[in-house]
Each structure stands twice: as structure tokens, then as C-alpha cells.
Design goal:
The complex is a heterodimer of chains A (about 260) and B (about 270).
Chain A lengths: L3 E13 L5 E13 L3 E5 L6 H9 L6 E6 L2 E2 L7 E4 L11 H11 L4 H14 L15 H14 L4 E5 L7 H18 L2 E6 L2 H7 L2 E6 L4 E6 L12 H6 L3 H17 L2
Parallel strand pairs in A: 3-8, 3-9, 6-7, 7-8
Antiparallel strand pairs in A: 1-2, 1-4, 4-5, 9-10
Chain B lengths: L19 H24 L11 H14 L2 H32 L1 H15 L7 H8 L3 H25 L3 H9 L4 H38 L5 H10 L3 H29 L9
Classes of the chains: A alpha/beta (about 260), B mainly alpha (about 270).
Chain lengths: ~260, ~270
């Protein structure tokens, strides 16, 4: 039996615009994330999926509802919810190794353990050859790997990713998706991933939370049952698995319906 | 379509980088033209020799100033003033600018004050500085300090504000508190830009140095030039100008070298 790590209970976010007008970006969104599971937030642009993720991270404050991590309400950013952004966030002045050690260092992890964990996670993302390289010497995909290793090495309960592969080329994106599937199994960390890429969502998700746009509401929770609780690799295989095509079609239809409301 | 290798290389190409050799030759060339015109104008008798001495005479005088007249002492005094005043300005500007760029609450306090001071020309303070501090080193240092400090604060603040929000948010989600975020993420991220800003403002400090030394000083390069004016020694005045230019260039190169040495990781950027 898996237990719930994260719970969103009727989360809303209303932005105050000028002249007394307001905009509700997120409207009473509720869902749960189970331990070690990958939950994907999917939806058309303007559905507030990034805002939801930022509220989970504690970088934005909900105007209504409550987010609970474990037993504690989320009140601000913290190391228990590591975040990987779409934009590169490597610290250019630190080597790959020191980037990955950064979170542990500021949280007082002793040097020996820090080094060991950093090397472990750098190996996990396949950058062992670049331990002492600076981020400026790495490609975009490699820099995202550094960000992922840095976040995981810090031992978060939940890994949050905001379109982490959006800036990468197609081939690198596939590699990174497969890498994330491996990481999810090995690092035993729950993840919430925001994307607008349907294939990515089906490939990675244990559960897809589909949000509608203007305002962002949960339209449907989809469990890709055809994967039978596992993750199917490589991607070619997934696409051929019975059930994949139907699910993709269904989500495309949801996307299209949402698009027509605009 | 013509094959690309048949393309004739032209002198003017939009935004296409030129070979290093060409760059060096161009740089030397423009100076040869400058000194050439100067030389022809003086040797040809087109200008009054008393007001515009020939470049050869100026170089001769510069040499004499160094060898016989202890010019190096004046230079040392001037360099000392620039370095001390600039160090004081930087010691205040860098921490304050970083704090203002990091914390809007601190910016709200100091920005209105700092921006107002930027529009007050520092030389307008010379009379009052002389009354306050007399004729020693203090009024000169104060002028140099006032001349750059408010600009430097503003530059450091603006660069600090340009540190990308994602870097700061990454630090926060890794568990950084405010001081760690400022000291270990914002500061190292902005430091290369701060060094560049200091390089730019150092050039301005030299401007104020000459003003300070011309107006109220008996020592330093500027004072030497004012003495020379009294004795109609235009060659010495021009020597002073050349030496100031050379010193400015030297400091600029030193800062550039320091930048490369301090921030080696910026070298191989893939953009």
C-alpha cells in the first residue's frame, strides 16, 4: 500500500490586477501524490500548472486552500521540496561536483558524506566524466542533469520539475525522460512534473492530473492503467503497447476541447 | 549559387570578426596617423610651436621628467590618491549595492537618496570640501570618493537585480536562508559584473583626480601640469596628459587581467 506524501486541498490562486480587477489562475485544485510516484501536471497553456507547482514549492502563496507535505502544511520554500526549472540554474562559478554538493553544504552535511553522495548522484545522471568541469563547458542537457543531481543529492521528499526538458532538442529530451524514469526507481523520490508534452506525460506518469484553462481546474485525473504500474522502456516500446494510442488520443481530445474555449 | 569558396573577402563585412593580425595593425595604424599629422603640423610650421610642441619634443620632455625631475614621485602620489579613494568608494558601494539589489526594502531606503546625489556634479563640492578639509589629502580623496561612489552603488545594484530569479529560487528550494542566498548565490553570480563596473568607474576616478589636482594641489600629475602652464611649458602639459592616458590604460588592462584570473569559468562559455 502506498501512502500519500503530498496533498493539495482546494488550492486557489487569484492575482490582483490593476483597477480592482482580479484574475483567478488556479481554482480549487485538489489532488494527491503518492510516495515514490511520478505525478504529471498536464494541460494547455494558461491552465496554471506552473503556478500550482510553484505553490507546492512554496515560491508562491495560495490565496485559498491548503497544501500538506507529510503532516505539515507548506508555508514557504524548503529543502524537502527540491525544484528543477526549465531555465538553466547551474551555478556557473562552481564545478559540477560543487554544484551538486551545494545543497548539502548549506545544510551542514559533513564533507565526506557530501562528496560520496555527490559522486553517487553525478554517476546516476551519467556525468562522472565531468566532475570537475564548469557548467559553461557543458551542453544544455548536461546542465539540466547537473540541476537534477544537485536537487536529488539534497535528499528532498519530493522533486518538482517545471517543464525541465522544454529547452532541449528532441533527442536529448528522450534521453532525459528515460533517465528520469531510471532515477525515479533508484532515488525513491516522489516527483511532480509540469509539462505540455503528451508523450512525455504518458511515458513518465503514474498519474496524470489534467488541468483545464482559465481558470485552472482539475478536469480529470488519469492513471495510465495500460502500463500496469510499471514504466515501459524504451519509448518505442511504450508507443506500441496496447492502450497507449487510446490514451494519447483521449488526452489530445481533452487538449483540443480546452483550446476551443479560448 | 556560387560556391562559397569563390566568395571574395571584403574589408567591410557586417558583424564578421576580423583576424587578430588585422586588429593589431589597425590599432597601431590609427596611432601612426594621429602622431603623423601632429608631426607634420609642427615640423611644417602650420602651428605655433609654443602652443603645440612637436611629438618628438613631448617624448623627450617626458623622458626628462622621469629621469631628472622626479616625475615618478608625482605619479606615485596621483596613483595613491586614485587607489585609496577608489578603494574607499568600492568598500561602501559593493556591500550596499548588493544589499539594495537583493532586498527591495533596502533599495526603497537608499535609492531615492543615491539617485539624487548622482545628479550633483562632484566638482561643485570643491569649495566646501576645501573649507571643511583644508588643503591636505582629505579634500582630494573626498572629491574622488564623491565623484564615483553614487554611480558605483547604482551600477552594483542594477547588476545585482539582474541576477536571474531562477538562481535565487533554486537556492531557496535547496534550503538556503536569506544570508546564504545573498552570500553564496547572488554575490558570486554578480561578482564578474561588479568587477567590470569597477573597471569602468576607475576611469571616472582619474577624471576627478585631475580636477582635484588642478584646482587645489601642489603635488601630483595635475599640479605638475598647472606649474608647467605658468612657465608656458606646453610640452610638459602634454607629457602629463600622455602619462595619465597611459596610466588609465594600464589600470584598465590590470582590471581585465584580474577579471580573467578571478573568473576562469566564464572563458569557455557556450552561451
Amino acid at each position: 500500500m502506498s501512502s500519500t506524501v503530498l496533498q493539495l486541498d482546494r488550492i486557489s490562486k487569484t492575482f490582483q490586477l490593476g483597477g480592482g480587477r482580479e484574475l483567478t489562475a488556479v481554482d480549487r485544485v485538489s489532488f494527491e501524490v503518492e510516495e515514490n510516484a511520478i505525478c504529471v501536471l498536464l494541460g494547455p497553456s494558461g491552465c496554471g500548472k506552473s503556478t500550482v507547482l510553484r505553490m507546492i514549492a512554496g515560491l508562491e502563496t495560495p490565496t485559498g486552500g491548503e497544501i500538506t507535505l507529510g503532516r505539515h502544511p507548506v508555508t514557504g520554500p524548503g529543502r524537502d521540496r527540491g525544484m528543477v526549472f526549465q531555465a538553466y540554474t547551474s551555478f556557473d562559478w562552481l564545478t559540477v561536483r560543487r554544484n551538486v554538493e551545494f545543497g548539502m553544504k548549506i545544510n551542514g552535511v559533513p564533507a565526506g558524506e557530501r562528496r560520496e553522495r555527490a559522486e553517487h548522484f553525478i554517476r546516476l545522471v551519467g556525468l562522472s566524466k565531468f566532475l570537475d568541469a564548469y557548467p559553461s563547458q557543458l551542453s544544455g542537457g548536461m546542465r539540466q542533469r547537473v540541476a537534477i543531481a544537485r536537487t536529488l543529492a539534497n535528499g528532498p521528499e519530493l522533486l518538482l520539475m517545471d517543464e525541465p526538458f522544454g529547452a532541449l532538442d528532441a533527442e536529448t529530451r528522450w534521453q532525459m525522460q528515460e533517465l528520469m524514469a531510471d532515477v525515479a526507481e533508484q532515488a525513491k523520490t516522489g516527483m511532480v512534473i509540469v509539462t505540455h508534452d503528451i508523450e512525455e506525460a504518458i511515458f513518465l506518469a503514474d498519474k496524470i492530473v489534467f488541468l483545464s484553462a482559465h481558470p485552472g481546474r482539475v478536469k480529470e485525473e488519469i492513471v495510465p492503467a495500460f502500463k500496469a504500474g510499471g514504466r515501459i522502456r524504451p519509448k518505442e516500446e511504450l508507443v506500441q503497447t496496447p492502450g497507449y494510442a487510446e490514451l494519447e488520443r483521449k488526452i489530445m481530445r481533452l487538449m483540443r476541447e480546452e483550446g476551443q474555449h479560448e | 549559387m556560387r560556391p562559397s569558396h569563390a566568395r571574395k573577402s571584403r574589408f567591410l563585412e557586417v558583424r564578421r570578426s576580423i583576424p587578430r593580425r588585422q586588429a593589431i595593425l589597425s590599432a597601431i595604424g590609427i596611432w601612426i596617423v594621429f602622431f603623423g599629422i601632429w608631426l607634420i603640423a609642427t615640423e611644417g610650421g602650420w602651428v605655433n610651436e609654443l602652443l603645440v610642441p612637436s611629438p618628438l619634443k613631448v617624448f623627450q620632455t617626458t623622458w626628462n621628467l622621469f629621469v631628472d625631475r622626479g616625475f615618478i614621485g608625482d605619479i606615485g602620489i596621483s596613483v595613491g590618491r586614485v587607489v585609496i579613494a577608489f578603494a574607499m568608494a568600492a568598500a561602501l558601494s559593493v556591500p550596499l549595492g548588493v544589499m539594495m539589489g537583493s532586498f527591495p526594502a533596502i533599495e526603497a531606503i537608499f535609492a531615492p537618496f543615491v539617485s539624487a546625489w548622482r545628479y550633483l556634479p562632484a566638482p561643485s563640492f570643491i569649495p566646501i570640501l576645501l573649507m571643511w578639509f583644508g588643503t591636505g589629502e582629505a579634500p582630494k580623496l573626498a572629491l574622488l570618493f564623491l565623484g564615483v561612489v553614487f554611480f558605483l552603488i547604482t551600477l552594483v545594484m542594477d547588476h545585482t537585480k539582474n541576477v536571474r530569479m531562477e538562481l535565487i529560487e533554486t537556492a531557496l528550494t535547496l534550503g538556503a536562508n536569506r544570508s546564504v542566498t545573498v552570500m553564496h548565490v547572488i554575490l558570486p553570480a554578480v561578482l564578474p559584473d561588479i568587477v567590470t563596473a569597477m573597471r569602468q568607474m576607475l576611469a571616472v576616478t582619474w577624471t576627478y583626480l585631475v580636477i582635484a589636482e588642478i584646482v587645489a594641489s601642489t603635488t601630483g600629475i595635475g599640479a605638475m601640469m598647472m606649474r608647467a602652464r605658468r612657465f608656458l611649458k606646453t610640452d610638459e602639459i602634454l607629457s602629463g596628459i600622455i602619462v595619465i592616458g597611459a596610466l588609465g590604460l594600464l589600470f584598465d588592462l590590470l582590471f581585465k587581467a584580474a577579471h580573467r584570473w578571478l573568473f576562469p569559468y566564464l572563458k569557455e562559455s557556450r552561451g
